[in-house]
Write a structure and sequence with these properties.
190 residues; binds zinc ion; Metallo-beta-lactamase, Chain A; alpha/beta; 6-stranded mixed β-sheet; 14 strands; single chain; 35% strand
Amino acid sequence: MIQLDVLCIGFLERDFEGELTAAHSTSTLIRAEGRNIVVDVSTPYMWPAVKTSFRQIGIFPEDVDTVILTHTHSDHVGNLKRYPKAKVYVHKGGKSEISGATVVEDDEFQICPGVRMVHTPGHCTEESSVFIEADRRYVCAGDAVPLEGNLKENKAPALNTDRRLALESIERIRRYADVVIPGHGAPFIV
Ligand SMILES: [Zn+2]
């Protein structure tokens, strides 16, 4: 049985002109048979919250064997060194390659039974989501769905490299998911 735990709930802050002043991603732990997988590792600012979650769940960051990065923006990758034993996956396409990461080129890539990476570009070229078949169908969407409003109002991410692709990716996520874990924010029901 696959289990999900949100390690920290990320957020975005904007000033009154709409400029981003803070960005910290949500981070999620997926426990599948014999596997501990983290999707997005968030930022050092969020590490105390992540660490507390690990303690409550009863596993250690060292137990994490796999890290999936939805993309390579700094607000999603800041704690990578906290997972020394993890194999890191990122989809091809980004300019900023993560050193040592396994680069996925396929549209869909199975990490383990019930957990697959799906290319959902538009926010950036390498953007991917993680589709999870657990008690419900979950999607860790990264910034394909940065905030709940993007999916609920069918709005492309404010920051995007291709608006049309971004809207297609949102649609793909909507068709699959019962629950979405956005790039920044708490899980919500579709
Ligand atoms: Zn982000």
